[in-house]
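Tutorial handout. Part one gives the primary structure; part two gives the three-dimensional structure as C-alpha cells.
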Amino acid sequence: MEAQALFDGTLKHLRAQGQRCQDSNGSCLYLDESSGRMCGIGCHIPRDLYDPRIEGLGIRQILEFNYALRVLGILDIPVIRFLRRELGAHAELAGQLQRAHDVSQTWIEHGILAPFDWQHEMETIMRETAFLFGLHY
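Part two.
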C-alpha cells in the first residue's frame, strides 16, 4: 500500500466513524466486533484476517518487533503477515495514524482530564502527519 492511500483511507474512515474504537475500559481496539467500529489501522485489515490476539499491541510493535510476537505465539498468524506486507514500509506513518485515533487515550495517560474534542484533535494530528510525511491532507 502506498503512503498516500494509507493516509487517505485512515482519514476517510475516522471522519466517517466520528469516534474512537474502544472497549468498555476505554482502551483502543483495532476492531470492536460488537459495534463494527475500527481504529485508523483496523480499517485496513480485512475482516476475515482479523484476530483478537493483536489487541493491546501497537502497530509499531507488530511491524518492527519479532520477540514479543514470538513470545505471544502470534508471529506468523495471517493478520501479522498481512500487516507487515501491506504496512511494513510505512511503520512510522502507521504509528502516527494510530496515534490520531488513540489521541484521547494519550491525554488520559498524561493526567489531562479536561474537556476533550476527539474530532478536532484527530484532525490536528492528521494535518501534522500529512505535513511530516509530505502527504496531501
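Part three, for discussion. The mean pLDDT is 90. DSSP finds six helices and no strands in the chain.
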